[in-house]
Amino acid sequence: MFIEQMNTKKFNFILYLPIPLGFMFLMIVNYISSQGMDTEKVIHDLINQIGVNLAFVLLVGPLSFACLFLLFWVKVLHQQSIRSLTTSRPRVDWGRILFSFFLWAFITIVMVSLAYFANPENFHVNFQPVPFFTFLILAVLLIPLQTSFEEYFFRGYLMQGIGVVTKSRLWPFLITSVLFGVMHIANPEVGKMGYIIMVYYIGTGFFLGILTLMDEGLELALGFHAANNLIGALLITSDWSAFQTHSILKDLSEPSAGFDVILPVVIIFPILLFIFSKKYKWSGWKEKLTGQIPENNENQFNKIEENV
Hints:
single chain, 3% strand, protease
């Protein structure tokens, strides 16, 4: 029912196109630019000029602002409530967001702790109170907006729009999952580890797509994504990652793409899907992931009007 939220007579394909086309154009430009420059060196030079925290703001700020712009576009131009872009439920379920956030935050903390105690020589304790807590404030303000933009764009706006056009759940699931992974192709991690890391990025896209379609809303994906980026940025950084921060630990090891890249996709994500499916009693997997979209949904969904 989540995709059908946009399937009303108010859907305007012309107004829908500028956001995805503009974003795709920026992705292509970003990728082409990354092929002609050393992304890692560019980030280091920026940090040397303005400092870690301000560089973080400049790198994350645009996507944080883009989240607000996207919500404005949906609310004002499409006249679609933010609630309907977020969930098929009568109201946004903050309990789902928080459960997903704290579950993945806990798992992330455990995994980083195990890695540290298993090979302490690979890490440097990077904690400095003033820079860390300054970064903490910036991260709490900006990272949830940055991750929310990615979720609202890929699993919300793009998934709903493609679903309306194709009358299918499978096509938006496949397209948005792959595009989410491809969006990260210009990250410095790709240059260091090779394209094998795209398995992780695209696999994460499929995982978040399943969460959205099976749970009929973005809440679980929003919570997971925020925890992944926020807790990760606070716990650990490295000289070769996209996020270089005043984190607690700094990874000194030489990056390599091995089983640790595949592990989340083939083991951890399926376990999380099992946990979520049991807790929220998911059913009808085939229909929710590959089923068809009804022709028009206005009468069914416009019964709930919210000025969110």
